[in-house]
Design a protein that fits this description.
Chain A: It catalyses: ATP + protein L-histidine = ADP + protein N-phospho-L-histidine. Chain A: InterPro entries: HATPase_C_sf, HATPase_dom, His_kinase_dom, PAS, PAS-assoc_C, PAS-like_dom_sf, PAS_4, Sensor_kinase/Photoreceptor. The complex is a heterodimer of chains A (608) and B (141). With 608 residues, chain A is α+β, with helices and mostly antiparallel strands. Chain A is built from 21 helices and 22 strands. In chain A, the strands form five sheets. A five-stranded antiparallel β-sheet of chain A has the order 2-1-5-4-3, with helices on both faces. A five-stranded antiparallel β-sheet of chain A has the order 7-6-10-9-8, with helices on both faces. In chain A, helix 15 runs antiparallel to helix 16, helix 16 packs parallel to helix 21 and helix 19 packs antiparallel against helix 21. Chain B has a single domain, classed as 3-Layer(aba) Sandwich (Rossmann fold). The longest helix of chain B has 14 residues. The chains are: A alpha+beta (608), B alpha/beta (141).
Chain lengths: 608, 141
């Protein structure tokens, strides 16, 4: 019954929204609100079981003394319930009766666990931030507009190489930036942050307290409060080494690019699949493409299959065996144009030393090749001309010598001859010798003219007309010999030739064909002309005596070489026309079979 | 000094130049006593005559004057063919040429070694036929 009474009495206290308890002077719990009891995990108040406040706050050692002082105070304490620690804050105030006597203590307790946790979290974050700043060597700064106070963190001071006690002003801070670009830029950005609320992030240079010039990255961000900038917060990071390293890399890159681009070579780098990953200017201009059009392409995209296949096999060989190809002569065809290259391919290694492609270099040697060929041709021509000169010199010396020998011999006879009749005979011989010499000289002159008069210009001549003209001049001779001519030359066939040479060539070959006819059959001469890539081929065939070419082959075009016993065979005609033909850049060949006939083939060079 | 007229049974002159032939004949008159002097315009003619003589049992020429440069068959070719004939008689061959080509001289030297006959090399002009050319050993000295 008493308990019921008590419930009534303290009913108000029990309902208090704030956790509240009443202690007697001895510190025993008299009563408490439900919320208070809940915080401490206590059962409803039981008069028989005394609960002392000290057992609830064991960590507060001087609680007894504090309570006796009869003054109000605050306490922070913890309680562990169900493995959960709660942070509590209790307010102790003396409890007076109507006569202002202290009869106990009023305790009000707040659960401040969440506040404490927040605080801890904040501390943790602060910690993280500081560690971050320290590790990333990023400093922060803060400027308050109203107070004009600038705060640098430790790291910021370290970056500026100032002592920890240093407190900068804004002007001083700005003066740390290298005068000129950096200082102007920072002033401008800082100003804009204040006036235009603009954040910034830039790379500038500072001159540290010790006079070192260093690259830093700075940021600034205005914080706006009530429509105006209250403060500016920013960071500063020393990026000197990165910037320098970057510069160096850029410089190296620049050097390499300039070098690779300016080399008089076609340079390319290919990956393992032979896709181009780098091309230089030379390669681009050779392929008539922009670098971006070539990157990622293989030779199969650029060249004929056959050429690309060869190139790919070379690449594989280099990458597989790691043996470079150095200075190999290769031929490349692009849009029908052939280019000769001196190609080198070397394996390309990555940073771990594993092959990751090939580096190729090609030196265009087309013009060199051409010059070499020209030189070879020139040497050929020169040595041929030299050979001709030597043989001509021999001819001259031999022929002139034979005549002069005859003169000497005959004059010797004349000197000692007394007999008039014999003297007359000798003089007749001398006249003969003189005529022979004159004829020989005339022949030699003709040959000389051919070989020296380069100015004899070739004209485009109608071959059929020329042949007809010569045949007309020979008509009496041909008729007397009962000659049949089969002229198969097309009406519109033209050759480039010196007119007098063409007449001479036709005249000599046709008259030879008749001269060396077989006694057993009338001569038949067949004339054909074929046009080919090399030029016009004129062939004149007969059914005459023929020659044993195994025996005379090398001599047939020689001077004063005759092979048949004929009075009018002088051995000069073929020598003359060979010279004429060769002077025009052509050639003459012969096929013959004894007693069957002979064919002469004349090749005309179409070049002027 | 007196050169005796050498008696020669047969002489071949193989040359296509009539003036040279004339000269040789004229020079022979004073040094050789020969009733049988044959003229050929080229090696082939002379070769054919040699075979004929061999077949008919006629005397083989003791002395041959042989030009080098001739149509159809030249002096060298003639020599080649003649060596093949295996003539056992004593023959003196005089190569006569206006050539001063060292190649001809070298060729002569090669032939001299393998030719079973006496092989002389005479450069034109010729003014005199030496006893040597007729196969004589000079009687004098």
């Amino acid at each position: 019954m008493k308990a019921v009474e008590r419930v009534d009495q303290f009913y108000l206290l029990k309902q208090l929204p704030k956790a509240t308890a009443l202690l007697c002077k001895e510190g025993n719990l008299l009563d408490a609100s439900c919320s208070w009891l809940e915080i401490f995990g206590l059962p409803p108040i039981n008069k028989k079981q005394k609960t002392q406040i000290f057992s609830l706050l064991p960590e507060v050692e001087d609680l007894i003394e504090k309570l006796q002082e009869a003054k109000s105070f605050n306490l922070r304490h913890e309680i562990s319930l169900n493995n959960e620690t709660r942070h509590l804050k209790s307010y102790f105030a003396p409890w007076f009766d109507e006569k202002e006597n202290v009869i106990g203590t009023i305790v009000q307790t707040d659960d401040i666990t969440s506040e404490v946790e927040k605080e801890e979290e904040l501390n943790w974050l602060k910690n993280i931030m500081e560690t971050k700043m320290e590790v990333s060597k990023t400093g922060w700064w803060e400027y308050e507009i109203d107070t004009e106070k600038l705060t640098w963190c430790k790291e910021t001071k370290r970056i500026h190489q100032v002592p920890d006690c240093y407190e900068p002003t804004v002007i001083e801070a700005i003066e740390f930036y290298k005068s000129g670009y950096s200082q102007n830029k920072v002033s401008m950005l800082f100003h804009k942050a204040i006036t235009d609320y603009q954040s910034y992030d830039t790379k500038v240079m500072i001159v540290t307290f010790n006079g070192e010039e260093r690259w830093v990255r700075i940021t600034g961000k205005p914080f706006i409060k009530e429509g105006k900038v209250a403060k500016i917060f920013g960071t500063i990071k020393d990026i000197h080494n990165q910037v320098i390293a970057e510069h160096r890399v850029k410089e190296h890159q620049q050097l390499l690019t300039t070098l690779v681009d300016s080399l008089p070579l076609n340079v390319y780098v290919k990956d393992l699949e032979s896709r181009k990953v780098l091309v230089n200017k030379g390669e681009c201009s050779y392929l008539h493409k922009k670098p971006e059009e070539l990157i990622g392409k293989t030779d199969f995209d650029l060249y004929d299959r056959e050429i690309a296949q060869i190139s790919r096999e070379e690449d594989i060989q280099v990458m597989k065996h790691l043996t470079p190809i150095i200075g190999k002569e290769t031929v490349s065809c692009l849009n029908g144009k052939t280019t000769h290259f001196l190609t080198s391919k070397i394996p390309y290694f990555d940073l771990e030393g594993k092959v990751c492609g090939v580096i190729g270099m090609g030196l265009d040697i087309t013009s060199m090749k051409k010059k070499q060929e020209e030189l070879c041709d020139l040497i050929k021509i020169t040595s041929m001309q030299n050979q001709k000169l030597i043989s001509f010199a021999h001819i001259v010396s031999h022929n002139l010598r034979s005549h002069s020998a005859n003169f000497s011999m005959l004059l010797g006879f004349l000197n000692s001859e007394k007999d008039q009749e014999e003297r007359k005979r000798i003089i007749k011989m001398l006249t003969q010798a003189s005529d022979n010499l004159l004829e020989t000289l005339g022949n030699l002159n003709q040959v000389l003219d051919i070989n020296t008069q380069e100015s004899e210009t070739k004209k485009t001549l109608n071959l059929k007309k020329s042949i007809t003209g010569v045949l007309h001049n020979l008509s009496a001779f041909l008729e007397n010999n009962d000659t049949q001519i089969i002229n198969n030359v097309a009406d519109d066939m033209v050759v480039k030739c010196v007119p007098t040479y063409l007449d001479s060539i036709i005249l000599n070959l046709v008259s030879n064909a008749v001269k060396y006819k077989s006694p057993g059959r009338p001569p038949i001469i067949t004339i054909n002309a074929i046009k080919s890539d090399k030029g016009v081929l004129l062939s004149i065939s007969d059914n005459g005596l023929g020659m044993d070419l195994d025996r005379y082959g090398d001599k047939i075009f020689g001077m004063y070489k005759t092979f048949h016993n004929r009075e009018d065979a002088k051995g000069f005609g073929l020598y003359l026309i060979k010279n004429q033909i060769e002077a025009m850049g052509g050639s003459i060949t012969v096929q013959s079979e004894v007693d069957k006939g002979t064919t002469f083939n004349v090749y005309f060079n179409e070049e002027s | 000094m007196c050169i005796l007229m050498k008696k020669v049974s047969c002489i071949f002159i193989v040359d296509d130049d009539p003036i040279t032939v004339f000269g040789i004949k004229k020079m022979l008159k004073s040094v050789a006593d020969c009733k049988d002097i044959q003229i050929f315009q080229n090696g082939k003619e002379a070769y054919d005559a040699l075979i004929e003589r061999q077949n008919l049992g006629k005397p083989i020429p003791e002395v041959i004057f042989l030009d080098i440069n001739m149509p159809i068959m030249d002096g060298w070719d003639f020599l080649d063919e003649m060596i093949e004939l295996n003539i056992t008689e004593h023959v003196v061959i005089n190569m006569i040429t206006s050539s001063i080509d060292p190649l001809d001289y070298k060729k002569w030297a090669d032939f001299k070694d393998r030719c079973p006959y006496i092989l002389n090399f005479k450069n034109k002009p010729i003014f005199k036929i030496e006893p040597n050319d007729l196969g004589c050993i000079t009687a004098a000295s």
